[in-house]
Amino acid sequence: MTDLSLEKRQLCDIQGRLFELALKNGYDCPAFIKAFMNSRAAAALDDIYDRLQWAGEEYILEELDEEVHGLKKAGEIYPKEVMYWTGYVYRYWHYYTNEDSREIYKTADEETVKDCWLGFHTFDVEMAIEDLKELYRQRNNQ
Length: 142
Description:
Layout: H1 6-24, H2 29-37, H3 40-46, H4 57-67, H5 80-97, H6 101-107, H7 110-120, H8 125-139
Helix pairs in contact: 1-4, 1-5, 5-7, 5-8, 7-8
């Protein structure tokens, strides 16, 4: 298992809480996840250091809402646990593989992660990531 620094684990938690906050604020969960994973805000979190990394989930959500000219309200709602886990896993994935958020999202979009949550959320995070990557390879015959 990768030994993430305290700061990186805190950023995983912040991203998990960001995803929960999107749910709490009534945003369409799939639309939020897609917008975030393809955003400048996610790219800033991928960077070695960016001020946004320590701004907190409320500020990051405001930045994203502004960047996409308004996040979609209502729509499909995911359970709170799924949202937190998804945000946490996506950020951990970046640290584990050094892939950027856009590439991670191409490998495992929100629908895939939501569908796998029940079976994968009890796994070690790295095992869940490897299984999501394997699922992608199988779907794409790679």
